Amino acid sequence: xxxxxxxxxxxxxxxxxxxxxxxxxxxxxxxxxxxxxxxxxxxxxxxxxxxxxxxxxxxxxxxxxxxxxxxxxxxxxxxxxxxxxxxxxxxxxxxxxxxxxxxxxxxxxxxxxxxxxxxxxxxxxxxxxxxxxxxxxxxxxxxxxxxxxxxxxxxxxxxxxxxxxxxxxxxxxxxxxxxxxxxxxxxxxxxxxxxxxxxxxxxxxxxxxxxxxxxxxxxxxxxxxxxxxxxxxxxxxxxxxxxxxxxxxxxxxxxxxxxxxxxxxxxxxxxxxxxxxxxxxxxxxxxxxxxxxxxxxxxxxxxxxxxxxxxxxxxxxxxxxxxxxxxxxxxxxxxxxxxxxxxxxxxxxxxxxxxxxxxxxxxxxxxxxxxxxxxxxxxxxxxxxxxxxxxxxxxxxxxxxxxxxxxxxxxxxxxxxxxxxxxxxxxxxxxxxxxxxxxxxxxxxxxxxxxxxxxxxxxxxxxxxxxxxxxxxxxx
Length: 476
Prior knowledge:
The chain is an all-alpha fold. The chain contains 18 helices and 2 strands. Residues 1-462 form the Major facilitator superfamily (MFS) profile domain.
């Protein structure tokens, strides 16, 4: 529970400030062009530094880095909550992301080493998968409640008591792993890998306001390709590689990484569109918007803890992952039918439940399978690789699908705005049309995730592994 609590804090912080952002923008005087950095600064630092954080956890000891990550995250949250200007808030969010990059891999590595019994491991991964999958939705609920009844600053301050409780619990309950002797940190690999990921994530974040053909966006993508290619080449020669390539060469592991990336692309796009649909089109308050995501959260928890955790010891991972992607895609298909006045119970609720159950079936098997057989010295960096898949997938999904939605919506308005008297209705219809076009893309991407899982993830049920087989490692 201590590990799950820390992971929940990290995951929900990617979205908890979304609903609070309008209030923070007014309070601190942010421009419309700069407000995106409240979100992007966190995801950039988190996604770009995860591999380095995972290797630090392996080298320095997981419990130690876990506690350091918690304390640093709480300090950065306090700094952000006390922000007196936009720059101070942006910097605090980047600092949160940096400490999250240390915290998340060490948390998952501790989960691996703490739970060795197959049944207990299944329960632990079920809870962990539920929190990882539902944390973003919980962030929307918490953000709405805190913003409406307290203040936007409490969306950051709330991390402090959570971190304190996790630190106390870690000291009392968790066992530390010994630091690796004689191992060195791959500094060049860290610069190349982190630089490449930051360039990639930054490029996608800038594609939305600037456009995909903008010289800066194209330059960032080109730089990302060059740096990541150099990173892969260096990892074949480095004496102590940041990411041992045997981790990603394994068929099952690579399939899990790719499945996670594709699934999260669709999921993060849904969070973005539904939040704006509920508040802008249907006129929901922040609290009502947050509560509207509650069925999704419950469905993810049920799918992870009551279905996946019970079936994974007896079923091959892809037997859960493939139906999960089909269910999630079915939920997204329901969202393609929304209009400017859709009823929540008939149009949104069925889609949220289907999508939640599907994501619950995807996340838990991915976490439990992706690092199966990884040596203990590599568990931190393997956990970081899956966390990176999530963050990069979320960044790509937000940028790609939002660009599609904006372009389609603008074209719809231009084609239908013949009568100025109906301008407001046409604009709202254009917004919804853009969302539905992008959601169709998300459906296709989610089904592609299912195809990848079905073809690449060939691992057997964990209960049938030979008794001397390595215990499956965890994945963030």
